[in-house]
Structure formats: C-alpha cells, structure tokens
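To whoever is on call:

I kicked off a structure prediction for a single chain this morning and the downstream step that reads the tokens threw a length-mismatch warning. I double-checked the sequence; it's 306 residues and nothing unusual in it as far as I can see. Pasting both halves so you can look.
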Amino acid sequence: MLKVTSLYQNSKFMFNYLKIKIMKIKCLLFSACLLSFNSLVFAQTDLTSKIINPSFEDNVDDVATGWDYEGGCDAYVWHTINTDGDDTKTGNNICGLWNATFGDVAISQTITGLTNGTYKVTADLMGSSNAASSRLTTQRIFGNNCSVLFGTESDYSAETVSVLKSKLGEKVTYAGHTVTESDAGPLLKCEVICEVTDGTLSLGVKTNGSDSQYAFSFPNLTAGDGWGWFKVDNFTLTLNPTTAIKNVISKKDIKILVNNGFITVEGTDSYEILDLSGRLVSNKTQLNRGIYLVKANSQTKKIVVK
C-alpha cells in the first residue's frame, strides 16, 4: 500500500511539474510572438528617402534640386547650394537665403502617396545672426500646417504668433534655440510633429521679413539688414510609431470569436486573417496556436489563438 501511494504521489508530482513546464513554454512562445509583433509594428518608420535631396548635396552652386522657392529664387541675392556652414552641417553642402529685405518666403517640396497618420519632420536650422546682431524673425521648419519656430517663446511678439495662427493657420511650437554670433552656424535641430490625412505632406522652411504682407512685429531685431535670413540642412521624415500601432490595432471594438482554432467575426461575412508575416490565412482553416491579425469593417485587431 505504501508503494502504491508513493507511486501515485510521484506521478502526481511529475504531472504538475510537466504542467508547469508546458505553461512556461507557452509563455515563452507568446513572448517571442509578441516581440515579433512589436518588431513588425515599429520597424521601417524612417521615410527620409521620400524627400528629394534632403541634405542639399545635389546641384552645388545652383538652386536646390527637388525644392520649390516661393516667389522664385532669383529674388534673393544669396540662394544657391553652397558649403558655407560650420562642422554642424551634414555632408558638404547647405541651403540658405539671404537678401537685404524679405517678404514671405518658403523653400518646400510636397510628398504624395504617404500612409495617413502622424509624422515627425526635422531639419538643422540657423535662424539667424549676422556680425553679432540678431536677424530673428519667423525662421521655422514646417510640415503641412504645423511649424516650429527657431527661438524660444519669449523671442516672439504676441502679434507675430497671432498672425501665424489666425491668418496663416499654423499650429506653432518652439525649438527653444538661442541666436549665436557666428553666421556660419551652428545649425541646430528643429523638430515638428504634423498630421497627414490625405496621403500628402508639404514640408520645408519658411521665414518672413520687413516686406511681409502680414502685420508681423519683430521685437529682437538689431541694426542692419537681412532680417529673416537663414541656413538649413539635413531634413528627415519619420512615421510616428504610435501611428503604426493605431493602424495595426484599432481602438474600436469589433467582436471576434475564437473557438477550437477557428476565428469568426460577428456582424460581417467579409474579413481577413493574416499571420504576423502578413500572409493571408483562410478563415475556413483551423489555425495553429499563435498571434494573428484580423481585418474587418476597416479595423484591424490582434488575436491570440491558444
């Protein structure tokens, strides 16, 4: 009787031990799948290659390839791609505009065919100084209707900010940089977050000067000319990772049922099932354990088949 009891206890112990081991293996597999899913979501967000000539390395001593100059570049004395930047520049060349007076200026390009979502545009900007004198007006990097001004909030008058917001329809932020004495640089990073709702993004650099058609007020200008001039380099474009998450896992609730390896969606006969590699899986097939993406009614949701 003692041997039978001992055998039973040993068997029960082994059963529990194996059960725990299986649970641990399941957890490890689930974690591995989740890591793969996260890699899928967060990978390949850098879209700088969509920008033509982002660091102005093409067409030195001429106008910037791929970029449009508002009002035409010949209106400005200094407008060609050149090497006139300190060691904060990227590559050999920079872009810039200088003139005795400025009106309303933009150097920009438009990108189409983008996924709708939230994007980050960055560029290195000097905006700006000249012989120890401030030329700071409204030098700013922009993406669609969002812009980031070079200086701190206190550098700009209420009238200027009001014009940008109410008349030009811009959502304004501040890079927080201080104007330096050297006109060679440094070029300092400015970052703006913007939305794409129709697959199209216009990005670039803007400035306004004393000849602007708008009622700007520039409180920090000092004697001289060239108010509003700038140098710019190294544009980048990144899809915000949170956008990728929203595109893959919708916050809207859709009722998905999992039963014995089969996935069904209530309320619609039209839905797709994909594995984490993006391959389409038949909704009539009994699925192996793992993580799947279910698309239904313009929504996408992650589902675990146990």
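Update from on-call: the warning came from a stale cache, not from the record. Cleared it. Sanity check on the structure: Confidence is low (pLDDT under 50) at residues 33-44, 244-252.
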